[in-house]
Amino acid sequence: MQDEIDHSNASLMHSGTRAKEKSLADFVAYWASMRKGHDVPRRTDIDPRGIEALLENAFIAEKIAPGLARMRIAGTHLSDLMGMEVRGMPISAFIAPDQRDQLAELLVEVFDRPAILKINVESPAGVGRRALKGTLLLLPLRSDLGDTSRALGCFVTDGLIGRTPRRFNIVSHSIEAVSSRRKTSKAAVTKKAPEPGFAEPALPFETTPPQHPSERPYLRLVPQDQDD
Questions:
Q1: 139 lies in some domain
Q2: Within a domain: 202
């Protein structure tokens, strides 16, 4: 009986890992489809509907100095990991202090090359919490001024969050220069981009103010005003 339970749990974990990997691949594919022939998409081209499956894990970051970026807006999962509102916090708040210099070097690559960054992280077990693994993804974006000073991010974790705040060690990372990527195939663009004739403007990222003191703002889809 115990062997059957262990096998079932292992199968569920494997299935969850596959689902996470597919969701992250779809996240990157959507970003790539918004490039529209350019090296990176514009911030204003990003429509939350295109990343709805990972909306609670998504965030928009702004470069404020070389190697330093803060979260302008973030999904609920990131606030859950910290146990507090994370808007305005640097991305490095999620990383163990002794590894923040390494993160800073990687962030320079994201904005200056520009490049796609994927970091595998792990938060150690402690009182009231189990070890927690995750993946942090950063995809460069252009601001309204045309400079690469924004990034579309995603932070997914496996398992219960437990006692907060959670801070993570960098286990491994991969970085890929955007220039090394070929133009997204027509099939991929057709799947991820809005359908032809889709004239509705992109929905903006917004946060909803908490309805009660215990609630935190969250990322949501915001409908546009309709003409009478």
A1: yes
A2: no
Residue 32 lies in a domain: yes
Is-contact 88 70, C-beta < 8 A?
A: yes
Q: Which of 54, 39, 46 is nearest to 112 (CA)?
A: 39
Closest by CA position to 137, among listed 118, 123, 152, 160: 118
Predicted confidence band of residue 16 (pLDDT cuts 50, 70, 90) = low
CA-based torsion, 118, 124, 125, 129: positive or negative: negative
Report the CATH number that the domain containing residue 73 is assigned in CATH: 3.30.450.20
* AA identity, residue 176: E
User: What's the rounded Cα separation, in Å, for the pair 183 and 216?
Assistant: 39
From 217, 224, 184, select the one nearest 30 (Cα to Cα): 184
Facing residues of 177 across strands? 115
Q: Could you tell me the residue range of the domain that residue 98 belongs to? A: 2-185
Cα dihedral 113, 168, 205, 199 in deg (nearest 10): 60
Within a domain: 100: yes
Q: What is the mean pLDDT of residues 189-218?
A: 41
Which of these, 194, 173, 177, lies nearest to 139 by C-alpha position? 177
pLDDT of 27-72, one tens digit each? 999 999 999 889 999 999 999 999 999 999 999 999 999 999 999 9
Distance from C-alpha of 203 to C-alpha of 49, rounded to nearest angstrom: 8
Q: Token pair for residue 13?
A: 């974990």
Q: How many domains does the chain have?
A: 1
